[in-house]
Amino acid sequence: MLCHRLGMTTKRRNTLRRSVRLPVSFGRKIPAITADVSRGGFQAEMPQVFVPGSTVHGYFLLDEKEVPFEGKVAWAQAGNPQLSVYSKFGVRFAQPPLGLRELFSALDSKPRKVKAK
How far apart are CA 37 and CA 21, in angstroms? Predict the structure, then answer.
């Protein structure tokens, strides 16, 4: 298998995740993009990979506004740069960022699409 899981938590998420693509910067040095965001955390994609358990901090760029966050890497899946496959990882917020409240309110007001089984 080209990619493998680098860690997994057994704690199930209890917040609704929405597919939202937001630019993210880690430590003002490493750019990434979100795949989904919730009040509890987010999934991001980038060429590098973080080690699960690492503390991370940075900011989201939302409507030309920087929204800071801090959290821990809950899981990571290494990518393959030779195949242009980005790494994926999940971050659990230490505290939900106050600057994302407006985004969550807007997302909560939209109907959720349910996939057919």
Answer: 8
